Amino acid sequence: MKKVIVSGVFVVLAALITGYLAYLGPRKADPTPREKPALLSGRIVASATRAPIPGASVILETSAVPKSAYTDDQGVFSIQLDGPHEGESAKLAIQAKGYQPREKYIDISSKNPIEDIRLDTAPQRVPSEDTGTVIAGLVVDENTNEGIPRAEVSIAGQPGEALTDDSGYFTVKLTTSGSPPRLLNLRVRKPGYKTSERTLSPQRGLKVLLSPN
């Protein structure tokens, strides 16, 4: 009699366990695979020489907290993202000593590396004691607004001529006895562009537009 009762209990327990497991059902796998955190990398180089720029500061601004890194001896930087950002638009802010700061907008992609980011050299500062004796400015393409390197800048009555740097900046120091002239005739030439001639007063921050031929 006892054996029959014990057997009945086991049968009931087995039935209860089987029913409970059937109620829970099998666990479904997450259909959406988790994306691995992306590693964003690129290289910072000089515009003129394409030489790598070590020690440049690179700040990545996304929808999350901004991340930063510095370039190594080869000008390469790497930024580990905290979460999936594939295809997201972001901004890179780059700064390096001796170069002009630059901002570049990108679409984050772990498959397609960022093209080399080029920095222009910073213009030389004109000493403040030369106020009124210096012409300084920037020569740019009228269509693209980009600086024109190695454009010839000359002033009527002044010996020689100056060349714009890699970013299109120039500085001409006047060689005059006594007070500097109030008006000057400035001439800017570059093969492939129309020559620009202007009459102006000695000044800094001048912007000269050249039109392509």
Structure in a nutshell:
Helices cover about 10% and strands about 35% of the residues.
Total individual domains: 2
Which architecture of the largest domain per CATH? Answer: Sandwich
- CATH fold descriptor of the largest domain: Immunoglobulin-like
The main sheet comes to: 4 strands, antiparallel
Count of separate DSSP helical elements? 1
Question: Percent of residues in beta strands?
Answer: 25-35%
Which outline best applies? elongated
Query: Could you say which structural class the secondary elements and strand pairing correspond to?
Result: mainly beta
Q: Compute the average pLDDT.
A: 80
SSE arrangement, N to C: HEEEEEEEEEEEEEE
Head-to-tail CA distance between termini:
113 Å
Number of beta-strand segments: 14
Low-pLDDT segments, ≥5 res: 127-132
Q: Mind telling me the C-alpha Rg?
A: 34 Å
Under CATH, the homologous superfamily of the largest domain reads: Carboxypeptidase-like, regulatory domain
Helix amount: 10-25%
Query: Which CATH class of the largest domain?
Result: Mainly Beta
Q: How does the SSE layout of this entry go?
A:
Elements: H1 2-24, E1 39-46, E2 57-61, E3 67-70, E4 76-80, E5 89-95, E6 102-107, E7 117-119, E8 134-141, E9 152-155, E10 162-163, E11 169-173, E12 184-189, E13 196-200, E14 206-210
Parallel strand pairs: 1-7, 8-14
Antiparallel strand pairs: 1-4, 2-3, 2-5, 5-6, 8-11, 9-10, 9-12, 12-13
